[in-house]
Design goal:
Blueprint: H1 5-8, H2 10-22, E1 29-32, E2 35-38, H3 51-58, E3 72-77, H4 83-90, E4 93-100, H5 103-115, E5 122-126, E6 139-145, E7 149-151, E8 166-168, H6 171-179, E9 184-195, H7 200-209, E10 212-223, E11 231-241
Parallel strand pairs: 3-4, 3-6, 4-5, 6-9, 7-8
Antiparallel strand pairs: 1-2, 9-11, 10-11
Length: 243
Amino acid sequence: MPYTPRVQDYERSLERSRQSLNRADRPDLFTLAGRQWDLLDEVFAPVYSPSTGIALDFLGLTEPVAEEMRRGSFLEIGCGTGVIAVVAALAGHGPVVASDINARAVENTAVNARRHGTTDRLRAVHGDLFAGLGADERFDTVFWSSNYVLGPDHYEYRSAHERAYVDAGYRTHRRYLHQAPLRTTPGGRALLHFSSRGDHPRLTRIAEETGRELRVLESCRVREGEYGNEIVEHLLLEIVPAG
């Protein structure tokens, strides 16, 4: 992916975070994937970014499935409002676990699980990456739609909400690349939704340093309105042990 400074500017992403929290048109209820969702304060708002919808498409969650079809267990890291985790449960995945470092996002996911009747097969947990899980929990699919924008190594977050936009020094990406494959069942997949708003060459180097390889499973290009004529490329990456 070519380097595009304007799209990759972390200060712009932090400004997006601040604006998203305080916009006059920030809704309490929004529509996505043909369903309505609650949006709580201090939680990433999917209405201001195409990333959630793209993730649903990447995962095949917008495709209809037979009621009796089971798709295996599913873990979402960085669940936010819970749209992806809830739709995964509705699409036949189970059990589903949704994790977020933002306690307000965990609450938001639980609210939306109740709204759509998935509390019997979806559990929302609070923790940094895999910290909220049991030591022995493994999943057929592990997925994170990441905070792809690279922030300075020593940046100090002013809110949990900023963590949805920027990863300081790619420290969280480094831990995810190492740990995610360890959380899959035999034959399971560790997936990462990344984009050209992030530093793909640096991510690749980190993967090599952690003994991982990145395989591109899906990609698409979208024009994101806030960037004018800038085209942003989104990628679905699979993380596998090197060699």
